[in-house]
Amino acid sequence: MITAIGTPVLLNEIKHIQTEAVGGDIDGSVIKNKVKASFMESYTGSYTMDNATAEFIATSRLTEFVPLLFKAMNETGEDQAFIDRQVTLFRYFDFLDKDQAIAILYGQLLSDDLIVTQFKIISKAISSSNLIDYDQVEKLLAGSLLAKKAALKVLTLDKDWYSVQDIAYL
User: Using CA atoms, how far apart are residues 14 and 159, in angstroms rounded to an integer?
Assistant: First the structure.
């Protein structure tokens, strides 16, 4: 339950809320997921969550979880449950719109706080989800040493199909 101007409102009773930012309708499940996500801010990494929470994060498509995902990329562990939870978490990028996933992953590769562990996981996500974008690779080549390494790694990957623009870049 949330409160709107002092009146309790059950989330599952909200059908549609018009929003100009999205340009369309948002149904009650989106609001319910946003509220649920706000309660998950206490998670500091994948060690502190259960499998159901990891699955919710992966399938939610909520950008509120991106910092948590990059924090989880820094964690290591030998426990099989932990490894399975991380695999589930990193499927998050498979559920996003392709352009949004590219912006998030390549943006992190360009950030100053990129570490080697994140680099490996992001590179794997780019290749496994076929998120190769040569415009972004060009930006990586102008970045830090680790970003340049990422660019070279991405350039060695094969795409399912190549556009005329892709061929021009290559």
Answer: 43
